[in-house]
Specification:
Elements lengths: L18 H4 L11 H13 L1 H6 L14 H24 L4 E2 L4 H7 L7 H20 L9 E4 L4 E3 H18 L3
Parallel strand pairs: 1-2
Antiparallel strand pairs: 2-3
């Protein structure tokens, strides 16, 4: 694994919130009933095992495209963001979420330098924690809301859909 940072990956400024209701034509994601979301995270986390077992998991396919390892680190951290935001929506009235820059987080945490098996274990642990959290959400809880710093409002259900898409889309990105 390289010890010096690879070139930055260009940011994606597309507004992906359309996937919450419309699904994603790129990866095939379709929105799910809230009650099914808890299990989706755990099931999808197992698909990363083969991805991160590859000998080239840390190699970028192109200089400005994340490696499989970097995508896995991003998904792991998005799951932690989901957990934090769902807990806030369930415990507070209308929380506002600080901006989260996944590209900056990748550089800060040096995803390219991580151990693939440790990243896998952490991703699966985060997915299991999110699954347990979502299994405990009541019918009214799914409608609890919060707002991103850019003004976009989410419910527990729509935030969970958004991150479920994130996980599926990045599995698609790495060919899994």
């Amino acid at each position: 694994m390289p010890s010096t940072p690879p070139p930055p990956v260009p940011g994606d400024d597309r507004d992906w919130t359309f996937v919450i209701t419309d699904g994603c034509p790129d990866c095939g994601f379709q929105p799910l009933p809230p009650a099914e979301l808890a299990d989706v995270f755990v099931k999808r986390s197992t698909r990363w095992r083969d991805v991160l077992s590859r000998t080239d998991a840390a190699q970028r396919p192109a200089p400005t495209v994340w490696s499989r390892l970097e995508y896995a680190g991003h998904v792991r951290d998005m799951l932690a963001v989901l957990q934090e935001r769902v807990e806030a929506m369930l415990g507070q009235e209308g929380p506002v979420f600080a901006d989260w820059d996944g590209d900056a987080k990748a550089v800060e945490l040096e995803y390219w330098n991580e151990d693939p098996q440790q990243t896998l274990a952490e991703l699966q642990r985060s997915a299991a924690q999110v699954g347990r959290l979502l299994h405990g959400v009541t019918a009214l809880g799914w409608e609890r809301s919060g707002r991103r710093s850019d003004g976009m409002s989410f419910t527990v259900a729509t935030m969970s859909q958004y991150i479920a898409h994130e996980m599926e889309h990045h599995l698609h990105d790495v060919g899994a």
